[in-house]
Amino acid sequence: MVFCINAEKYMEVFVRLDKYLAEMSYGTRNEVKKIIRSGTVTINGVQAAKPETKVNELSDIVYIGDERVSYSQYVYYMLNKPAGCVSATKDNVHKTVIDLLKKNIGNNIRDDIFPAGRLDIDTEGLVLLTNDGVLAHMLLSPRRHVEKAYYLVADGIITDNGIKQLTEGIDIGDETLTLPAKAENIKVCSIEELGKDIQDIIKSQYNEEPSQTHEGKVYTSMELVLHEGRYHQVKRMA
């Protein structure tokens, strides 16, 4: 993927020193202010004692003691989102992908990070977390046709006509049909053939043993590749 930018626009980019260090996960704003006032921070070899000192993030060389601070304007994290977690930066009820990120790498992450795309609370899979708004837009825009692959299991048999509707575009109640999708690795199987992880998901949904509730039933599993991301799209299509 190639991006074109106006280089002149980014020739002089100045930020406060405390913001600069906080964004590079050296502590909260209050914590990095204490580090700066301790006299251990230098900019281009000159001691910096004030948090409001301006730093050119593209050209200045910053050290904390003997450690050089390497500045990145954009950050990218790949997170395997589990079920029960929401793709949001804040939520008053549920654990968020930001909470999981903090649990794994610490609380001092940048405060401008957001999930580029969303998975439902009960859906597991890859979520990209970044502060790069341009990249997020390019990944999410239907006009870019970036593929998003999902593995789904449907209760019962999806007929050949149903598969045709999925691949040609289907009415899910929106103003327009869904964009054509790709349905691959389609299998009709029993619950035992789905694997223990899928059985556990079904068990948690019905709060019963799958073998008791679904004995003799069949399911359709497939990989569904979309080029858009509407609200609950995979479930509504199925």
Shape: elongated
Overall pLDDT metric: 86
Strand order of the largest sheet: 3-2-5-6
Structural class: alpha+beta
The helix/strand series, from N terminus to C terminus, equals EHHEEEEEEEEHEEHEHEHHEH
Q: How many strands?
A: 14
Counting DSSP H or I runs of 4 or more residues, the number of helices is 8
Uncertain segments of ≥5 residues (pLDDT<50)?
A: 1-11
Range of helix content: 25-40%
How far apart are the termini? 31 Å
Give the percentage of residues in beta strands.
15-25%
Question: Over the alpha carbons, how many angstroms does the gyration radius reach?
Answer: 24 Å
Largest sheet: 4 strands, antiparallel
Task: Explain what the structure shows.
The structure is a single chain. A hairpin with a 2-residue loop joins strand 2 (41-43) and strand 3 (46-47). The two termini are 31 Å apart. A 4-stranded antiparallel β-sheet has the order 3-2-5-6. The protein has a 3-stranded antiparallel β-sheet with strand order 7-11-10, covered by helices on one side. A 3-stranded antiparallel β-sheet has the order 12-14-13, covered by helices on one side. Mean pLDDT is 86; it is low at 1-11. With 238 residues, it is α+β, with helices and mostly antiparallel strands. The chain is built from 8 helices and 14 strands. It has helices at residues 17-23, 29-37, 97-105, 133-140, 160-168, 196-206, 210-213, 233-237, and strands at 14-16, 41-43, 46-47, 54-56, 62-64, 67-69, 76-81, 85-86, 95-96, 114-115, 125-130, 148-155, 182-189, 219-226. It is elongated.
